[in-house]
């Protein structure tokens, strides 16, 4: 049986399987397609409906109560129900504190959202080593409860939430923005505001991604408990694990985070956005069911299915940016998260308060050009360098390949993670948390090249000369920005 047939048959047996099959087809068909918004006449002088209108009420709904509590009048337009979701998100404990400092949760409320804590996480490479790390993705947050709590806070702070409203038009001018949505009966609803927060995720008309990470999996029980790598240890998160070399040109990677006697596990691969195959998610689900026994032993039962194509931006192409004044991009629409870890939740937690404060300042000072709003969320200098690493794990380009070596990706990953591990936990963890200073990133690249000399030829096989040039430039820019104090410092040196 091929993977597509295996996936279809197995998914039908899973809870929510029929709905998942429809949704998967929709996601695959709409990948790369952007929402098109009809141009509207912007509002003239005079009173507006709100200070800020949100298009989209997914994860970045978090910003809405933050702004409303600072006194802004906020409206949210969401095509489904704002503040709903059904996956867990992993992050470290100290990073989560930003939600307490931002005033959205008390410590006790936050603790109640954490469904599991691990002593450490591990990255393990087929035919290579197992590299433990502490303080990375070691808290699992119940995403559904988190979003429900954010919605409650938004409502309590006076945010007007319009569920079932699909945004389809936008006009921006010197006096404000006008956003049009269709209500559940298809009737047009217009909201004027000083600023639009584009939180439409990857379907935003302004999103510009060049990486895609097809990701399938779910919450499984019935797997064998224990401390061997192919068992489930409730104290350990599998951050990144491979169980074979590159197959069909792709390096498949597992992640697995236990909670509540079950394992939330995903299988994914990195790909160039334009190179995603037609039925990427369904085929990957077939592989997931077929190769799961290589990853974990037991008699797995699916409690819940979770899947999607996570977008990323390599930094080797121009940044996503809105051409109109008064439009602020956030979340997947802005793609400011790491193209290596794809952690949109971590990135949101780390940045929502700074972005909220920046927006308040821009509104106060009436500085709302695209450049003003882009400057609210400067790209982390480190991230100028890590996108190319994701491309090094994507499918090699045949014209540049020469003779393929399917083991090369695992050997590269093993050298990279081995060198980070030997440099100390702070150094290792700082890369995975987007905190590494760019100069330390350069030391990491150098340390990896000492362990694996072929990395230089790998780079030429996976990236074209133009990309190598832009990567070098990005790293140099990142280092100079970091030297000016915008990159977080990570201690440790390569040995
Ligand atoms: C399977 C999977 C696992 C993941 N795991 C993790 C993880 O472990 N850790 C992590 O940090 N990140 C993870 N992510 C990524 C993370 O979920 C995203 O980065 C994050 O949700 C982006 O938030 P957002 O608000 O920008 O977009 P979204 O949360 O996607 O919200 C966009 C919202 O816009 C709405 N919308 C779209 N079009 C319209 C319209 N026309 N009108 C009105 N509303 C509209 C949508 O309905 C949606 O509610 C995962 C993603 C996937 C798919």
Number of separate structural domains: 3
Number of distinct helices? 16
Task: Tell me, rounded to a whole number, the average pLDDT.
Answer: 92
- Just give the CATH class of the largest domain: Alpha Beta
CATH fold naming of the largest domain = FAD/NAD(P)-binding domain
Biggest sheet statistics: 8 strands, mixed
Helix content: 25-40%
Q: State the total count of DSSP E strands.
A: 19
CATH architecture annotation name of the largest domain: 3-Layer(bba) Sandwich
Distance between the termini: 49 Å
Backbone shape: globular
- Which hetero compounds are present in the coordinates? flavin-adenine dinucleotide
* Full CATH superfamily name of the largest domain: FAD/NAD(P)-binding domain
In terms of structural class, how would the helical and strand content be classed? alpha/beta
The rounded Rg comes to 22 Å
Q: How much β-strand is present in the residues?
A: 15-25%
Give the key terms.
eight-stranded mixed beta sheet, 23% strand, binds flavin-adenine dinucleotide, alpha/beta, single chain, 495 residues, 19 strands, 3 domains, FAD/NAD(P)-binding domain
């Amino acid at each position: 049986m091929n993977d597509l047939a295996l996936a279809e048959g197995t998914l039908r047996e899973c809870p929510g399987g029929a709905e998942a099959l429809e949704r998967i087809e929709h996601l695959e068909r709409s990948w790369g397609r952007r929402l098109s918004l009809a141009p509207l006449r912007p509002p003239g002088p005079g009173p507006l409906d709100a200070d800020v209108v949100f298009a989209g009420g997914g994860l970045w709904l978090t910003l809405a109560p933050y702004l409303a509590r600072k006194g802004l009048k906020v409206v949210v337009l969401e095509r489904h129900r704002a503040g709903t979701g059904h996956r867990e998100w992993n992050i470290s404990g100290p990073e989560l504190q930003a939600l307490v400092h931002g005033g959205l949760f008390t410590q006790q409320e936050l603790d109640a959202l954490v469904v599991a804590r691990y002593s450490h996480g591990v990255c393990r490479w087929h035919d290579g080593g197992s590299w433990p790390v502490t303080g990375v993705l070691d808290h699992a947050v119940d995403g559904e409860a988190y979003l429900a709590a954010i919605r409650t806070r938004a409502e309590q702070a006076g945010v007007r939430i319009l569920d079932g409203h699909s945004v389809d038009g936008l006009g921006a001018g010197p006096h404000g923005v006008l956003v049009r949505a269709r209500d559940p009966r298809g009737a047009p609803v217009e909201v004027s505001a000083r600023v639009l927060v584009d939180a439409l995720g990857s379907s935003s008309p302004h999103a510009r991604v060049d990486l895609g990470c097809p990701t399938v999996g779910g919450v499984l029980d019935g797997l064998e408990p224990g401390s061997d790598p192919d068992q489930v240890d409730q104290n350990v998160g599998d951050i990144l694990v491979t169980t074979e070399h590159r197959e069909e040109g792709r390096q498949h990677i597992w992640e697995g985070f236990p909670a509540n006697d079950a394992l939330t596990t995903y299988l994914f691969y990195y790909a160039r956005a334009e190179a995603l195959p037609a039925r990427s998610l369904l085929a990957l689900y077939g592989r997931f069911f077929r190769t799961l026994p290589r990853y974990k032993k037991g008699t797995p039962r699916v409690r819940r299915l979770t899947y999607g194509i996570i977008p990323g931006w390599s930094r080797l192409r121009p940044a996503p940016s809105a051409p109109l004044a008064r439009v602020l991009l956030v979340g997947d629409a802005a793609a400011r998260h790491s193209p290596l870890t794809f952690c949109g939740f971590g990135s949101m937690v780390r940045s929502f308060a700074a972005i909220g404060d920046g927006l308040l300042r821009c509104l106060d000072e009436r500085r709302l050009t695209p450049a003003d709003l882009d400057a609210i969320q400067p790209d982390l200098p480190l991230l100028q360098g890590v996108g190319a690493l994701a491309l090094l794990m994507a499918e090699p380009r045949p014209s540049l390949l020469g003779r393929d070596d399917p083991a090369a990706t695992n050997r590269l990953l093993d050298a990279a993670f081995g060198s980070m591990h030997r440099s100390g936990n702070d150094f290792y963890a700082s890369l995975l948390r987007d905190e590494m200073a760019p100069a330390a990133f350069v030391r990491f690249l150098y340390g990896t090249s000492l362990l694996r000399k072929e990395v230089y030829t790998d780079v030429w096989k996976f990236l074209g000369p133009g990309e190598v040039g832009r990567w070098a430039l990005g790293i140099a820019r990142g280092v100079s920005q970091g030297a000016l104090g915008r990159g977080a410092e990570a201690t440790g040196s390569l040995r």
